[in-house]
Design a protein that fits this description.
The complex is a heterodimer. Chain A is mostly helical. In chain A, 77% of the residues lie in helices and 0% in strands. Chain A has one domain. Chain A has 3 helices and no strands. In chain A, helix 1 runs antiparallel to helix 2. The radius of gyration of chain A is 18 Å and the shape is elongated. Chain B has a two-stranded antiparallel sheet with strand order 1-2. Chain B contains 14 helices and 2 strands, in the order αααααααααααββααα. The radius of gyration of chain B is 20 Å and the shape is globular. Chain B is mostly helical. The chains are: A mainly alpha, B mainly alpha. At the A-B interface, helix 1, helix 2 and helix 3 of A face helix 4, helix 13 and helix 14 of B.
């Protein structure tokens, strides 16, 4: 049911954007929009299913901690 | 993208710049971990910012009508310039995620305790998305109301607490060790002063550097004075406890009690945080969307706003499990990461353009 809700939510977002997309009529813009939109759907579904548990903050934390040679406390990983 | 001209008065640029720097730092004042020496760290970091400001100004003087992304491509060539531009876009969206996470964390842990964080995040991002779709002018238009309200509230809380303030906590004035102060200064320099690098990506839409750069300087001065006021107020009221408080400004406002009539002033601090954080979030949001549109030569940025909002919401929900984790990140990770986009790449671009003797206008 949650996944259906996500898809309905995204359909509404697309309907909201559709007018703007049609007005601008930009092929390159549509491709970039498509990439962001599909990434958002994929992230939302993976987030809901619990597959994705990592965020940008954690990725940056891991990289900086590695480069600084510090150990992140267990709870921060 | 044909860059949209943003018509703002000088005053509005000053207000937006000030609010951008104040943002979440009004609630989580900088350098709280060093207690009574916070004001020294803040002063040192502002001196550092003045040097950084000179660098930004010199860079914009070399290429007055260019945006940050165009300057990067001029300095480093097409591919390396593109790589650096993508890195900056990542930094913008990353910073936006942090701001939303801070917002949601504060509201979820202090104001609306039983409301799911997802609901809070969706409402925050949706209102920001609405403003960004309306354009930067609409964001700037409310900045004067928010700035006047926020600074007045900060000053009012200061006055209400005057009987609880003790200046003895600032003694001894000379610290026994400078190293924690310098470490803290680096943190304050990165957050919030260095974050003004974001403005380099939109200043060319606002007008000539002669108009925008002095406004940025005045805005930073307002932010610096307000932050000093808040830092001194918090330390003078809470003493050494300020080091262990998650939201010292909020805890300070809870102490307001004048004859059992004026009390529970913490709601004023929440209003401050929401207003200023909102301006910061929308500015970052706008910079990211217009940056993507500019880099990929799109006709408009507006249809990117909603999908970006969804990505930011989800990423911010996964960012921090606790407030302590957030504070650890700000102190130990964030300053080292952002030193690259805030200082190193900009300095490199300036040196390269200078050596090549390019002046583009």
């Amino acid at each position: 049911m949650a996944y259906v809700g996500i898809l309905i939510g995204f359909a509404l977002l697309f309907l909201w954007d559709y007018k703007e997309i049609k007005e601008v009529n930009d092929k390159r813009g549509n491709i970039v929009y498509g990439i962001f939109f599909l990434a958002a759907i994929a992230y939302a579904i993976l987030f809901k299913s619990g597959v994705v548990t990592i965020s940008m903050t954690q990725i940056v934390s891991l990289i900086v901690a590695y480069l600084r040679g510090i150990r992140l406390p267990y709870y921060f990983r | 993208m044909v860059l949209e001209r943003i018509n703002l008065a000088k005053k509005q640029i000053i207000y937006v710049a000030a609010l951008f720097m104040l943002g979440p730092t009004f609630l989580i004042p900088p350098a709280q971990e060093i207690g009574s020496y916070g004001w020294i760290a803040l002063t040192i970091s502002y001196m550092g910012f003045l040097l950084l400001f000179s660098l930004y100004r010199a860079l914009l003087n070399l290429a007055p009508d260019k945006s940050l992304f165009e300057i990067l491509q001029l300095a480093f060539g097409r591919w390396l310039g593109l790589a650096f531009s993508l890195f900056y876009l990542f930094y913008f969206v990353f910073l936006l995620t942090l701001i939303v996470a801070n917002f949601a964390d504060f509201i979820d842990s202090v104001v609306l305790i039983h409301t799911p964080e997802l609901v809070i995040t969706i409402f925050l991002v949706a209102t920001a998305a609405y403003a960004v779709r309306k354009g930067f002018e609409s964001i700037a238009r409310i900045s004067d109301i928010i700035l006047y309200t926020s600074v007045s509230i900060a000053f009012l809380v200061f006055l209400f607490l005057i009987d609880k303030i003790s200046l003895d906590v600032f003694r001894p004035v000379w610290p026994s060790s400078w190293s924690p102060i310098f470490k803290s200064s680096l943190s304050v320099f990165a957050f919030p002063f260095g974050e003004t690098v974001v403005f380099l990506s939109i200043f060319n839409q606002l007008g000539k550097p002669q108009k925008t750069m002095p406004s940025l300087l005045w805005g930073s001065l307002i932010a610096f004075i307000s932050l000093q006021l808040v830092t001194v107020r918090n330390v003078a009221t809470l003493g050494e406890f300020v080091k262990y408080s998650s939201y010292p400004s909020y805890d300070v406002a809870r102490l307001v009690d004048i004859g059992n009539v004026i009390s529970r002033a913490e709601i004023l601090i929440s209003i401050n945080f929401l207003g200023m954080g909102y301006i910061k979030a929308t500015t970052m949001y706008y910079s990211f969307c217009s940056g993507v549109a500019e880099l990929f030569k799109l006709k408009s940025y507006k249809h990117l706003v909603l999908p970006v909002g969804v990505l930011v919401s989800l990423s911010s929900l996964l960012s921090f499990k606790t407030t302590i984790q957030n504070l650890y990140f700000i102190a130990e990770i964030y300053p080292y990461f952002v030193f690259v986009p805030q200082v190193i790449i900009i300095a490199l671009a300036y040196i390269v353009l200078r050596v090549r003797g390019k002046k583009v206008g």
